């Protein structure tokens, strides 16, 4: 038989071979039946039947340990369940809105501090920054310096207006900047907590930038300095000036004279103190700080070389900001320059007994201990007592520093109600100016010194001080400061806050030109604004944070715009208010900054005192 081979050849089927195969197959079947008649062992069965169903093992080998399968399964299951629950809880915590615990509201001192600083924004002169945040103020007096042909310095744009007028008095203004800088140096952490550190530094820089314009700040020696811009004296007859006219600063169109002086020790030394203290505030801005230090050194040298009172040659200064002496500014300015430079010659000057004697450190008098824009002795003594408490420089400074320390203790005693140095109103306001008008500016300065000295003693681990035989704790000083500031903020017989915008009852007729005239696109000329001055209506613009002059000695107050002895604010007064408020504000556990003021002071190695004179029989 043949067939077709698919690979191309004939396919032959051999029938004989086929028969043979059938026989073999039958033989194989017989063999298989014979083999199956015998029992097979497990190995043989696995060969024939393949892998069968295996029994589950009771244990799990984890390599390092063998555990029960049941325990292993439960453990893994529990871990997976715990992870799932933890993830679910985390998801819920992340997605469900949280109810944050409300922060404690700021204390009254912090609230008042925020407002008191805004007053300086309202007093700015020149081209205002975008962030000034006083909507009714604008650029003003952009020709200051240029409008006076006799002025050597032509760019006097900027700075601050002194009070309710538009005069720029450098004497009280420099004191205001020194006070603000001092408060920042001591209480920068409190300013930071109140959210006002950058703001107050911006206020200080606005002032110091202007001061650098008022003399040749790049020179080592000068022969004159600008004392003021504008005029307020109206005794010579009716003519347009900053007191005769009642105008918004933005609308001023009359000539503003520049007053310079070549013999003004008090003014120059106070300006030196302002620049020196600000150099410590801006010590992280090295270039600007050095510029301030250089200016301070130049001014102080001028103050020592060209002796005289600045108000002696100026009718305006003598009327409005008369200086009684320049010796206190020598002590005050010398102390600040020592802290700013570390140069011991300034400390030697500030602790010279003759200088202190002329400044009145060794005699009392009715105004002893009253710290103000005119007399800085009380502040200078506190400032130098700080040096003794924390660095104790020893000889040759110890004797005078000890005297200043003792005098500071006496001043603090005089503030307490147990003593009769100063009277108090029935409402509790201390009469540091003995019943004369405008008392609050002196009260806030005393409150600042009292709180600061209390903090100095606490930082020096000194629980108090002696007034004669009686010992008083530092808390008494803080209590004095709190009662005085609380009076100003409304705890007084009239229930009136003397800080505009604080509380619900405050003066509405503040003696202030810009605040009393509406910003209505109408330009009122010199006399045109008189109707707003004489109006009985409240000011259309609220000058937030302004501390008015204050009540009289009977706790009385007349909210009348024309009576500046009650209703006019000043930058010197507000600077003292800011300093007192920041010292009292916030957490009482936040203390003074002990070290920043000493940044430029080199390590002190006291000189041993000279040996005693040989004994002579």
UniProtKB/TrEMBL annotation:
Transmembrane segments: 71-93
InterPro entries associated with the record: 6-hairpin_glycosidase_sf (IPR008928), 6hp_glycosidase-like_sf (IPR012341), Glyco_hydro_9 (IPR001701), Glyco_hydro_9_Asp/Glu_AS (IPR033126), Glyco_hydro_9_His_AS (IPR018221)
Keyword Iron: no
Keywords: Carbohydrate metabolism, Cellulose degradation, Glycosidase, Hydrolase, Membrane, Polysaccharide degradation, Transmembrane, Transmembrane helix
Keyword flag Transmembrane: yes
PROSITE patterns assigned: GH9_2, GH9_3
Name under which the protein is recorded: Endoglucanase
Organism whose genome encodes this protein: Escallonia rubra
């Amino acid at each position: 038989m043949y067939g077709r081979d698919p690979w191309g050849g004939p396919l032959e089927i051999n029938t004989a071979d086929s028969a043979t195969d059938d026989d073999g197959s039958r033989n194989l079947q017989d063999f298989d039946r014979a083999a199956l008649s015998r029992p097979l062992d497990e190995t043989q069965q696995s060969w024939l039947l393949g892998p069968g169903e295996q029994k589950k093992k009771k244990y799990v080998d984890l390599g390092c340990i063998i555990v029960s399968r049941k325990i292993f399964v439960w453990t893994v299951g529990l871990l997976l369940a715990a992870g799932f629950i933890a993830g679910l809880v985390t998801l819920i915590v992340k997605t469900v809105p949280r109810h944050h615990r409300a922060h404690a509201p700021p204390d009254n001192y912090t609230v008042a501090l925020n407002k008191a600083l805004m007053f300086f924004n309202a007093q700015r002169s020149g081209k205002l920054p975008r962030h000034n945040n006083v909507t009714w103020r604008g650029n003003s007096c952009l020709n200051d310096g240029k409008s006076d042909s006799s002025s050597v310095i032509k760019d006097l744009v900027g700075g601050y207006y002194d009070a309710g007028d538009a005069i720029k008095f450098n004497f009280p203004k420099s004191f205001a900047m020194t006070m603000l800088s001092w408060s920042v140096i001591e209480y920068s952490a409190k300013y930071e907590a109140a959210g006002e550190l950058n703001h107050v530094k911006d206020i200080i820089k606005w002032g110091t930038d202007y001061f650098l314009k008022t003399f040749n700040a790049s020179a080592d020696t000068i022969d004159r300095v600008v004392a003021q811009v504008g005029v307020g004296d109206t005794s010579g007859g009716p003519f347009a000036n900053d007191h005769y006219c009642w105008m918004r600063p933005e609308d001023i169109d009359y000539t503003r004279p520049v007053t310079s002086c070549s013999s003004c020790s008090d003014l120059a030394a106070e300006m030196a103190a302002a620049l020196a203290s600000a150099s410590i505030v801006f010590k992280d801005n090295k270039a600007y700080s050095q510029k301030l230090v250089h200016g301070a050194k130049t001014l102080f040298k001028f103050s020592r070389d060209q002796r005289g009172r600045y108000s002696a040659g100026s009718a305006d200064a003598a009327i409005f900001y008369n200086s009684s002496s320049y010796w206190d500014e020598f002590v005050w300015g010398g102390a600040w320059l020592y802290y700013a430079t570390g140069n011991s010659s300034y400390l030697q000057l500030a602790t010279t007994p003759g200088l202190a004697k002329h400044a009145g450190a060794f005699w009392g008098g009715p105004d002893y201990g009253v710290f103000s824009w005119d007399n800085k002795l009380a502040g200078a003594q506190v400032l130098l007592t700080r040096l003794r408490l924390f660095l104790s420089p020893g000889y040759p400074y110890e004797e005078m520093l000890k005297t200043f320390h003792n005098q500071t203790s006496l001043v603090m005693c005089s503030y307490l109600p147990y003593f009769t140095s100063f009277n108090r109103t029935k409402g509790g306001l201390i009469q540091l100016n003995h019943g004369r008008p405008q008392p609050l500016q002196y009260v806030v300065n005393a409150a600042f010194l009292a709180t600061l000295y209390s903090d100095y003693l606490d930082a020096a681990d000194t629980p108090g001080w002696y007034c004669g035989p009686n010992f008083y704790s530092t808390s008494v000083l803080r209590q004095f400061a709190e009662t005085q500031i609380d009076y100003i903020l409304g705890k007084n017989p009239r229930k009136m806050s003397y800080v505009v915008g604080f509380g619900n009852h405050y003066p509405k007729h503040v003696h202030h030109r810009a605040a009393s005239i509406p910003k209505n696109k109408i330009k009122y000329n010199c006399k045109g604004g008189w109707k707003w001055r004489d109006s009985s209506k409240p000011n259309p613009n609220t000058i937030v944070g302004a501390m008015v002059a204050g009540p009289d000695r009977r706790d009385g107050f007349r909210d009348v715009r024309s009576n500046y002895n009650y209703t006019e604010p000043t930058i010197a007064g507000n600077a003292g208010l800011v300093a007192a408020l920041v010292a009292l504000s916030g957490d009482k556990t936040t203390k003074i900054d002990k070290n920043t003021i000493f940044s430029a002071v080199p390590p002190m190695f006291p000189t041993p005192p000279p040996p005693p004179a040989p004994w002579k029989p």
